[in-house]
Design brief:
mainly alpha, four-stranded mixed beta sheet, 29 helices, about 60% helix, membrane, transferase
């Protein structure tokens, strides 16, 4: 747990500080700069990794620091331009409204709430893995996507290639065919290896929840702050935001389901979106924020495009329901400001746009369908609105305390007249419901939004839960404010019915009440720990990759030639974990690959013919394959059993090898069902030993 704690601390610092410094240098106030810091940090990672890849620089902590210094110089230039005559005309300082900025005490309260929420998330996600799962922090998640994330972390650290445009080089060993993948989360994590000393599996298991321990409370708090600002001053809204940041950690979807199902980049992108959406909304009143807002939006997009969808929906609903009716300057001027922000964002996310277009032909996300038969519309609405989708519907729904406080929170939003926030909850509750059960004529538009979340109920539930947690936290925070004000009046001198001015006594009262509330939330977290920890660590039992596999991987890594040759593996079995665990190179590092080559396909289906088919043997030699690893079962049911292409059943290409062996393979290791073969002399005949020529008989010397 010491290593885990260190990874969490370093992650928080590396995630927040670079972006916060850049945002501050671009004229954002410190509190806003810290709120936008993670998104701006990811934006820097996105831009720098693509540029470094283009010019041949490696991505590592030193080059990242150099890039940060260059960006800080650029941010300083931006701030100086804002002070020129043209800059002051295009982006004048907002008029002084007389309202004080957020105070230090309010900042400390927000930090306390965010810190408590982060600690709850980190402990709930990491402790059960470290204490109860096989291999502890070296445990292997059994979920499909986790292999890609762990492999990406190791690959970027080893190669120095962090560009999202070059992930095909990892996905397909043979062809290196193009593949775009939003890679900022992995590229940032790769910087932590020399700073923490963690190995790739330890890093994946601790870095995943560590990032979410920062972004989830921040996202929920940002929404709650926005909600509260409809009626409250800055300091009171900050207090409410701190409450919400802590409350969010109690919700089972925030982020425990996402950690279990390993959709961490999606969850990070989505949880970054609210803070950035609030920043974007603020540009109409302070145009100096256009640059950092565009940078932050690009960071959200580069982390995962789903975050951009949430951000866009929040801003659009705000404009339709609030912004257009109370413009800061005029409707046209405000729209122009938002349009400039969008245009700058498009420039910054050009690699994302280009990469998405290039993989559009293989993009299947609009076609995912997770609907189940037998669920009615009302049941679907309840599940979509109140955190009841798969896998929560099995053992963790309905959670009445959270449902009740959410409903109260939605009523509070109506009282606050935060119509855009209320509409955001409704929209995503409907989108989530549509992923559970068809909503008829609404199915297409709702499915279009949900497509960017794979129309996956658990990913969409994460979005709804952010609104729900923010609403619940707002309700609790409003109650806290009401209680402290009531007590303040009771403690005020008799005959003074007006709201008392802040005094030392009233400040102590608010602080004490806030501490008590945070203590109650911490107690609720203790009560919620068993179910939430079970959710977060559920897929850790070794169903596909277990202790036997780890022993086999370590044996392979101990062979003197292991790092100089290639290992043929069955990608359907997940044995690509050989790479993140040991660094030994498998032919198939993931469960799928882009643009399989003919020789990859022939070797995959012809493993049992090694030593019997000259064409297969030549592929083995060309690829320098010296080992084969087999470890059933395969991940999906259709990948198991005997191949039957006539009836559409793929089957297991290694089944024949498992049953009959192969002439060119010799079994050299077995642990449980995991078997390692070495390619033998039938494929790699020993080099002929040169025979020295026979020694010539000495010529006798002539007689004298």
């Amino acid at each position: 747990m010491v290593l885990a704690a260190w990874v969490v601390i370093v992650t928080a610092l590396v995630l927040i500080l670079p972006g916060a410094f850049v945002g501050r240098r671009m004229s954002l106030p410190w509190p806003v700069a810290f709120a936008a810091g993670p998104a701006i940090t990811f934006a820097l990672v996105s831009v720098l990794t693509v540029l470094y890849s283009a010019v041949g620089f490696v991505w590592n902590p030193v080059s990242a620091l150099v890039g940060l210094l260059i960006v800080l110089v650029g941010a300083w230039i931006w701030s100086r331009l804002l002070q020129t005559g043209i800059g002051l005309r295009l982006a004048p300082a907002p008029a002084d409204t007389g309202e004080p900025g957020v105070g230090r005490t309010a900042i400390l309260r927000v930090a306390a709430g965010l810190g408590l929420g982060g600690v709850i998330i980190a402990v709930t996600c990491i402790r059960p893995v470290a204490k109860t799962a096989f291999a502890g922090l070296n445990n292997i998640s059994q979920v499909w996507d986790s292999l890609w994330h762990a492999s990406s972390l190791r690959w970027i650290n080893e190669t120095g290639i962090g560009s999202a445009m070059r992930m095909g080089e990892l996905m397909n060993y043979d062809t290196h065919g193009f593949n775009y993948y939003p890679n900022t989360w992995h590229a940032l994590g790769a910087l932590l290896f020399p700073l923490t000393g963690a190995n790739p599996v330890e890093m994946y298991n601790t870095y995943s929840p560590a990032v979410l321990a920062v972004t989830v409370p921040l996202g929920v708090a940002s929404l709650a702050y926005w909600f509260a600002r409809h009626r409250y001053d800055v300091d009171t809204s900050a207090l409410i935001a701190g409450v919400a940041g802590a409350v969010g950690a109690l919700f089972p979807s925030l982020p425990y389901v996402e950690v279990q199902l390993t959709s961490v980049p999606n969850a990070v992108g989505v949880s970054l979106a609210p803070a950035v959406a609030v920043l974007v909304i603020s540009v109409v009143r302070d145009r100096r924020r256009v640059g950092p807002a565009a940078l932050a939006v690009s960071g959200v997009t580069a982390t995962h495009p789903s975050g951009l969808i949430l951000l866009g929906v929040i801003v659009a609903l705000w404009w339709l329901l609030e912004g257009a009716w109370r413009p800061a300057a005029s409707r046209l001027a405000d729209l122009a400001t938002l349009a400039v922000t969008a245009a700058l964002t498009l420039v910054l996310i050009f690699p994302v746009v280009l990469g998405t277009i290039r993989v559009a032909d293989t993009n299947e996300l609009p076609f995912f369908d997770f609907r189940e038969d037998g669920i009615g519309v009302l049941d679907g609405l309840a599940q979509g609105a109140f955190n009841g989708t798969i896998p929560l519907n099995l053992d963790h729904y309905p959670n009445w305390p959270l449902i009740i406080v959410t409903v109260v929170g939605l009523a509070v939003l109506a009282w606050l007249r935060c119509w855009a926030g209320l509409a955001g909850w409704v929209v995503f509750a409907l989108v989530t419901t549509n992923a559970v059960v068809s909503l008829g004529p609404l199915s297409y538009p709702l499915g279009a939004i949900g497509g960017y979340f794979y129309n996956s109920p658990h990913r969409l539930t994460f979005v709804v839960a952010m609104f729900s947690a923010a609403a619940a936290g707002t309700a609790i925070g409003v109650a806290l404010v009401a209680v402290t004000r009531f007590l303040g009046r009771r403690l005020a001198p008799s005959g003074d019915d007006a709201a008392p001015a802040p005094t030392k006594k009233s400040r102590v009262l608010v602080a004490a009440t806030y501490v008590v509330l945070l203590a109650l939330i911490a107690g609720a977290a203790v009560v919620r720990y068993p179910p939430n920890a079970q959710i977060a660590s559920k897929e850790r039992g070794g169903k596909y990759i277990g202790p036997d596999d780890l022993v086999a991987y370590e044996w392979l890594a101990s062979q003197p030639d292991a790092y100089d040759v290639l290992v043929l593996n069955n990608l359907d079995q997940g044995t690509g974990w050989l790479y993140p665990v040991t660094g030994v190179t498998p032919l198939f590092p993931f469960y799928r690959a882009n643009e399989f080559s003919d020789r990859q396909r022939d070797l995959f289906w012809g493993a049992a013919k090694i030593g019997a088919d000259p064409a297969i043997d030549q592929i083995v030699r060309d690829l320098n394959v010296h080992y084969v690893i087999d470890s059933p079962p395969s991940y999906w049911e259709f990948q198991r059993g005997r191949p039957d292409p006539e009836n559409g059943h793929q089957g297991d290409p290694f089944l024949e090898l498992r049953e009959n062996g192969a002439p060119g393979l010799t079994e050299v290791f077995r642990q449980g069902e995991t078997v390692v073969y070495r390619v033998n002399e039938k494929v790699y005949p020993p080099a002929p030993v040169p025979v020295p020529p026979p020694a010539e008989a000495p010529v006798p010397a002539p007689d004298q």
